[in-house]
Amino acid sequence: MQQLQAGLARALCVLLAMAGTLRAGAAEEHAGHPLPQTRAESARVRFAEVPLSDQHGRELRLADAVGERIVVMGFVYTSCTTVCPVISAIMQKVQAQLGERAGAEVGLLSISVDPLRDSPARLLEYSRAYQSGPGWRWLTGEVAAVDEVLKGLGVWSADFASHPPNLLVGDARSGQWTRYYGFTDPAVLVARIEVLAAAREHAGHGHMARHATQESRP
């Protein structure tokens, strides 16, 4: 618990720096290591058809957890006291900024990269530190299954303890995905969500307009 509290304290410092409330360079180092530079790039993902479990022990597949929603994914493990608390704190702020949209229109997923130790019960306990709501699922499973999931998402690492900090934001309906490296400002992630949501709305209006045109033809 003390390690988790220390990690949360470091996460808060990083997020404050992101918001501009600390002087430039105040979060220059994180747990003795320089903060990674943030960048984004388009990504191609594949949802592995393997069984997983959420933090309540319910079995599901990644495609079931995503559904047809816009999704933010983070990759963590519960014994991590450096990178993972920051990633989870970023997700927490995204959840707060989404409000009631979290879970309905937008899903949040945290996937363990250490499934050997991260049982559903352990993820449930860990999630409480971040005020995880019903729209935020934490996934684990058998090692082979989780490895398949991580490989399909392009985030698998031979050494889970040194996995790089990154997040994925995408629309399961359109197949548009963006990978964010480093400790990305939550506002950047929410802005991407808004772009994807606007594209959905535009596509919906276009479909209705085409349908109306077809019906009006003799």
Automatic annotation (TrEMBL):
Residues 1-26 form the signal peptide. It comes from the Bacteria. Pfam families: SCO1-SenC. GO terms for molecular function: metal ion binding. The keyword Phosphoprotein does not apply. Cu cation binds at residues 80, 84. Disulfide bonds join 80-84. Keywords: Copper, Disulfide bond, Metal-binding, Signal. The keyword Disulfide bond applies. InterPro entries: SCO1/SenC, Thioredoxin-like_sf. Belongs to the SCO1/2 family. This is SCO1/SenC/PrrC protein, involved in biogenesis of respiratory and photosynthetic system. It comes from Azotobacter chroococcum NCIMB 8003.
